[in-house]
Amino acid sequence: MVMEGNQLFYKKFGNGNKTIVLFHGFGQTHEIFEPWIDLIQNSYTIYSFDLYYHGKSMRAENPLTLKNWKVDFDQFLQQNEINDFDIGAFSLGGRFALATAKMFPKSVKKMILVAPDGVYQNPWYKVAVHPATNWIFRYLMYHPDQFNSLVKLARQFSLASYSMIRFAEKELSIIENRIRVYRSWMYFKCLFLKKTQFSEIQCQIDFILGEQDSIIIPEKIQEKEQLFKYSNTHLLPLKHHQMIEGSKSLVSSLLSEDNL
Asked: How far apart are CA 12 and CA 3, in angstroms?
């Protein structure tokens, strides 16, 4: 789907009567959801997206506002003649899921959010996107020697969790990934809902969280759960990178229930 120079890529699977859209995490593509798709494709028609700056989806380098996203996603809905749908999301995709539920309250029936971003903000993220310190973030993303020095300092003085440091060392070792981080953090920041907006989401939400997840901290999500009108939390003994594969049976079970 191409929109004035932007391209929002998705792939369609299944032939079920119900519809679900899937939003992946940072550094992934629509293909990451194959474990889920295998289990639900008989009951769902599935649209698995590449987020902007990932896979085949492209966008100009400027902030993606809630209004921008509403226009983009509404075009997708109209082209595919979709009136109502469920959402499944992992990590960064959680921010898109919550924004979609906010902007299309009458269309979203149910959400499965696995270790979702968008419910609380990591302190490092707040520093990175703040107008007063954003220039430091940009400089580090485009200058690998200085970035690597910062990672070593963080490890030496325990300035971040072990998992966060390992993520930085593994995922941000090449310039393409660091640029993707910059774009994702800076240009998706407008999709982050205010706490007062959480209660405006009318659909049922199932949070699936990893007890061993140090990227999306389960306790931080649980602290905010009461802000949502209709929500349940499910805890699995998993780390962040294990969540999609490890949650597939639970996701399938939750989606097999009739929409509320």
From this structure: 19
Please tell me the distance from the alpha carbon of residue 105 to that of residue 65, in angstroms, as a whole number: 17
Tell which wins on pLDDT, 159 or 102: 102
Question: What residue has token string 């008989």?
Answer: 42
Q: At the fourth CATH level, which superfamily is domain 2-119+194-256?
A: Alpha/Beta hydrolase fold, catalytic domain (3.40.50.1820)
Q: Where in the chain is the domain with CATH 3.40.50.1820?
A: 2-119+194-256
Pairing relation of β-strands 108-114 and 204-210? parallel
Q: How far apart are CA 208 and CA 27, in angstroms?
A: 20
Tokens of residue 81, six digits: 């003649």
What does pTM read for this prediction? Answer: 0.89
Please report, for residues 11, 84, 148, the alpha-carbon distance to residue 80 in angstroms, rounded to integers and kept in the order given.
12, 11, 45
What is the C-alpha separation between 145 and 15, in angstroms, rounded? Answer: 49
